[in-house]
Amino acid sequence: MMHKRGLLFDLDGTLTDSDHLHYAAFNVLLAREGRQLDHQTFRSQVIGRANAEIFAGLYPEASSAEHERLAAQKEADYRSLAKSLVPLAGLPGLLGLAAQRGWACAVVTNGPRQNAEHSLQALGLAGGFQLVISAIELARSKPDPLPYQEALRRLDLAPEHVVGFEDSVSGLRAGVDAGLAMVGITTGLEGAQLIAMGARLAVADYSDPRLLPFIEARLGG
């Protein structure tokens, strides 16, 4: 019987402002063949998307097997750059409160599991989450709602008892379509853009005084 409450989080740009490290990792990869990714293209065509889609766009002539190899190299480059990460302000406190209240917490990312585990260790937050969903392991990635639906299923949560946190258009679409009340994190997009995409609230980080009342109103205190 579903009765628990929960918080579901994207990772990059949501738990930590790490998008600049992914941007650098893409350019480390592309520099090997004399190419470079400009920041506007990164923001419009990369952030929030699954690697299969990203690498099909960056290397349209390559095979899917080559896309997988290049993605694995890029992610290794990212992990080499992301030796230490800083959680967004207020996040450790929110996770501590969630533990006190008995709220389940999970990471739902389009990135590979190895990245998620690396990042959570670097953030010192590995113990704060009961579950990590890597959409790469599922049939469909965000913007499809399946990754969030899978988190709900595994944690035995009803969507009306959950708040989700995202920084990208694709992530917000996935969360909204899964029935979650979504909070937009303004690490990459303006608050108005996030609200227009379905976020109920847009904040810079987890210290915003509006956030806890919003969560408690959704989860029932």
Any overview of this molecule?
With about 220 residues, the protein is of the alpha/beta class. It has two domains: about 5-20 and about 85-220, 3-Layer(aba) Sandwich (Rossmann fold); about 20-80, DNA polymerase, domain 1, CATH 1.10.150. About 45% of the residues lie in helices and about 10% in strands. The protein has ten helices and six strands; from the N terminus they run βαααααβαβαβαβαβα. It has helices spanning about 20-30, 40-45, 50-60, 65-80, 90-100, 115-125, 145-155, 170-175, 190-195, 210-220, and strands at about 5-10, 105-110, 130-135, 160-165, 180-185, 200-205. The model has no long low-confidence stretch (mean pLDDT about 95).
What is the total number of structural domains? 2
Estimate what percentage of residues fall within beta strands: 5-15%
How many E-type strands? Answer: 6
In CATH, the topology of the largest domain is named Rossmann fold
Number of helices: 10
Question: Poorly predicted ranges (pLDDT <50, ≥5 residues)?
Answer: none
Overall 3D shape: globular
What is the highest CATH level, the class of the largest domain?
A: Alpha Beta
Structural class: alpha/beta
Helix content: 40-55%
User: pLDDT average, as an integer?
Assistant: 93
CATH architectural arrangement of the largest domain: 3-Layer(aba) Sandwich
CATH superfamily of the largest domain: HAD superfamily/HAD-like
Oligomer: single chain
- What Rg do the Cα atoms give? 17 Å
Spatial order of the strands forming the largest sheet: 3-2-1-4-5-6
Notable traits:
2 domains; alpha/beta; 10 helices; single chain; DNA polymerase, domain 1; 12% strand; 221 residues
